[in-house]
Design a protein that fits this description.
The chain contains 13 helices and six strands. The chain is of the alpha+beta class. It folds into two domains: 186 residues, no CATH class; 128 residues, Reverse transcriptase/Diguanylate cyclase domain (Alpha-Beta Plaits), CATH 3.30.70. Helix 2 packs antiparallel against helix 6, helix 4 packs parallel to helix 7 and helix 6 runs parallel beside helix 8. The radius of gyration is 27 Å and the shape is elongated. It starts with a helix and ends in a 9-residue tail after the last helix.
Length: 334
């Protein structure tokens, strides 16, 4: 796998919240700080092996591992958000390769087990900071390498321990993946309607807009604003207003395609992304949705251009919505 392809697959790590500043003034992220700490743990265990005389390979190999681990400890702490996630991934693969060599070539059973005990930690790290497919493939690779090394070694008696560590690592991996996915859903969802919020919409546009511009496919964005929503709140109360918003999203979901996206970006303002849909086709869809919805609402459309950004696309759709709200008969079209 090339560095470019790895970087494309990675990185939930690149989106982590900034939490501190490094000694160089660079912004440190949760990813860079945890990477430093994890590498320090690996370095510390290797140093402990040297001190106690528990080296399972040659001293040259052991000091190589210590040097690499200390380098990975220092680099994220200095670079902060500029630290490449691919380096951390390669470090995990290198750790798996070295420990597998230790299992196959080492002569001490206890030291063989000691080489594997950090696998659950590495699995948790991969599950939290990397994409699910890449994390699962990497953890699977660790155990394919170490399992193969165990089969060709003289340490078959530790197979039960290896199996237990594999199960523990699988649990840590899947727990981290589940919790991270749940956190991302909560961070990108509107708690009232279950639609995407502004953050979720930005994430969707960041994925779909470049892809559609690159492939010359169409992407149309619709902005929806409820008619008379303030009057509903004033006359019937905010609970009735909330239920109106919930029912609107339910109505839209029943009628839209699976590939379409609904987001709530304001009090009574929503956005619908319609991939592979031209402006005339989107107009037909939106008018049909209006007839199927309990609530009355107005919409404005904008179809993405090659030079569009998220802001420019939303701005054009919002301008057309405003024109419709003002009752203008002529609104600029794409």
């Amino acid at each position: 796998m090339t560095a470019t392809s790895v970087t494309k697959c990675l990185s939930r790590a690149e989106t982590d919240m900034h939490v501190a500043r490094t000694i160089t003034g660079a912004r440190a992220t949760a990813f860079s700080l945890v990477t430093s700490l994890g590498a320090l743990v690996i370095a510390a265990t290797a140093i402990a092996d040297v001190i106690t005389g528990s080296v399972n390979l040659s001293m040259q190999w052991t000091w190589l591992v210590i040097s690499v681990a200390l380098g990975v400890t220092v680099a994220p702490f200095i670079l902060g958000e500029r630290f490449p996630p691919a380096i951390a991934l390669y470090g995990c693969w290198l750790f798996g390769g070295v420990t597998s060599l230790q299992v196959s070539l080492g002569g001490d059973t206890i030291m063989t087990v000691n080489n594997l005990v950090l696998y659950p930690m590495v699995s948790c790290y991969l599950g939290w900071f990397f994409r699910p497919r890449l994390a699962r493939a990497s953890v699977g690779g660790l155990f394919v390498m170490s399992g193969t090394a165990l089969l060709v070694s003289d340490h078959h008696e530790v197979f039960a321990t290896w199996s237990n560590l594999a199960l523990a690592s699988l649990f840590c991996l899947e727990a981290a993946l589940y919790l991270r996915a749940k956190l991302e859903r909560q961070a990108q969802s509107d708690p009232l309607t279950g639609a995407f919020n502004r953050t979720g919409l930005s994430d969707q546009l960041a994925r779909k807009l470049p892809r559609n511009q690159r492939t010359a496919r169409t992407l149309t964005l619709a902005v929806i604003d409820l008619d008379g929503f303030k009057a509903i709140n004033d006359r019937l109360g905010h609970h009735a207003g909330d239920q109106t918003l919930v029912r609107l999203v339910e109505d839209l979901r029943r009628s839209l395609r699976p590939q379409d996206t609904i987001a709530r970006i304001g009090g009574d303002e929503f956005v619908i992304l319609l991939p592979d849909t031209s402006t005339p086709a989107a107009t037909t869809i939106m008018r049909r949705l209006q007839t199927e919805s309990e609530a009355a609402w107005t919409f404005g459309l904008a179809t993405a251009r090659r030079t569009d950004t998220e802001d420019s696309l939303l701005r054009r759709a919002d301008q057309r919505l405003y024109a419709q709200k003002k009752g203008l008969s002529q609104a600029p079209q794409d």
